[in-house]
Specification:
Distance between the termini: 57 Å
CATH architecture of one domain: 2-Layer Sandwich
Bound molecules: serine
Mean pLDDT: 89
Number of helices: 17
CATH class of one domain: Alpha Beta
Helix content: 25-40%
Low-confidence stretches: 198-205, 450-461
Shape: globular
Structural class: alpha+beta
Amino acid sequence: MRSADIRKKFIEFYVTQGHAEIPSAPIMPMNDPSTLFTSSGMQPLVPYLLGQKHPVGNRLVNSQKSFRAQDIEEVGDNRHTTFFEMLGNWSLGDYFKKEQLPWIFTFLTGELELDPKRLYVSVFEGNDAVPKDTESIHIWTTLFREAGIEAKLGERIFTYPAKKNWWSRSGEPEKMPPGEPGGPDSEVFFDFGMELGLHEKSIYKDEVCHPNCDCGRFMEIANSVFMQYQKQVDGTLKELSQKNVDFGGGLERMAAATADDPDVFNTDLFAPIIKNLETFSGKKYGSALQETQAMRVIADHLKAATFMINEGLFPGNKQQGYILRRLIRRAVVKIHQLGGAGSKSELGAKVYQAVGEIYDGVYFSSQSQEFLGLSQVLTEEIVRFEKVLKKGMAELSKHETISGTIAFDLLQSFGFPWELTYELALEKGQQVDRDEFQNEFRKHQALSRSAAAGMFKGGLADHSEATTKLHTAHHLLLASLQQLIDPTIKQRGSNITAERLRIDVSFGRKFTSEELQKVEDMVNKKIKENLKVTRVEMPKEVAEKIGAQMEFGTKYPDRVSVYMVGLNESIDPTSATSADYFSAEFCGGPHVSFTGTLGHFTIVKEDASSAGVRRLYAKLA
Ligand code: SER
């Protein structure tokens, strides 16, 4: 089955069950201080899972572009990717288990025509705070029975502890920060066949295989999270005011299951990219493990890079830009190892185009000037890194033994990834001080993991007072820039932490200090005026008509929420003009109710973010 058909069938199936389709949010979330990327469909929906009313209703469905930076090192096997599409449906305090489980079973077995005998499920076994999910066990038993299958516990239905069958953005209950929503989940696994469990790494050789055994026989294709709890400051879990369903299933994996082929890189979501890599290298995908793994890494990383670049991101040395740079450089290293006489940047451009064609009409217009033009961002970074690669290799060849310290120097001076130094040294027959090297490598990995983990500390649940105030100040700042400097200024990116706000805006030159002073004064004036902040829901066209600012690269549903600051109260917001408010933005919130609570606003820094984009940092005290 073509992946486009699976995506379409999923959306249509849930629309038939009364769901409203919402567009995919960008993979680089705006106004979310806690995370660099959207890593699941629920992430942009957190305020609604916590109880805020969603403008289009309480049953939602979509396909969400997702990126998991923490999975970079995992890519190379048959099923892990950093970029993936998550098919999702949500009940915001509406239906619950007895609707969701039959629906997903019907979707998988009816719409996708997966054989129910090939499906296995898992549910939460319970702990001190939350009981065993007997309701889901009962529902699954009935569903399988109706399909002619006697589903016994421990044979078709498995129970697992929180490590496996609890979902929150931070994992098990003990890892959830206060405010974070989560709950027990029920997963569906597709069985690719016993023989896959028989390779040497399998524990299936010695004991009965089970869905979570990771030997490659089973693949998780669907996850229904019963999101009904919220972590409290005292460490306990409290029932949310509403019981939600948060379903997510990887499109790539569903496509693999329908093809009865456990390798997601063989699906039409990757095959055109792999073809380019085969032509370039003259090697055949699937014939030798190392080359196959290299092709998977290149295909995944360049695909993720194409998505990021098309959301306006440039390779850089910090935050999202650094991840983009790392993806491209890692792909170049793998292209180098794969071998091939052609130009790496030309290959990059071909892969970029192949990604455009795979998602044509869904996320890209692969023949548009905009898409074609951005290809350069990728090819320039490839060319830049090739030079670094040359210099680093020359440096490497000066040493007979490559110690951990030399590898670290190479990392510092040339941005040479650890694995590259290691693999190149081995390739050239140099001695590698393996122990020291691996020690350094482990330290480095632990550091980058904890840095990544730090980004996931609270998601939108981090509705701390400080963050909320900065978010409102952010709106005041954008409006002030437009009103005082240039009405065509647009927001190009945003990031808010509890300490400061950051905004990227389109502007062709450095702001003068007088301009920045004027803007700062204007924001402080608006704070003193203690303007009311009003949230209004309206149709998207109306929001556009009244001049509300949109976030760059974001698609919006038909009904949106707009935050207006200083709205003239005698005016109907849906017929307002820019003279009737100080600021209006498409935004999910949260915000303060009156600007007077913000305190004193200061712009602390201004610099270039990329060509034509300036970056401002500001604080409140
Ligand atoms: N949030 C869950 C996941 O990411 C289900 O959508 O798996």
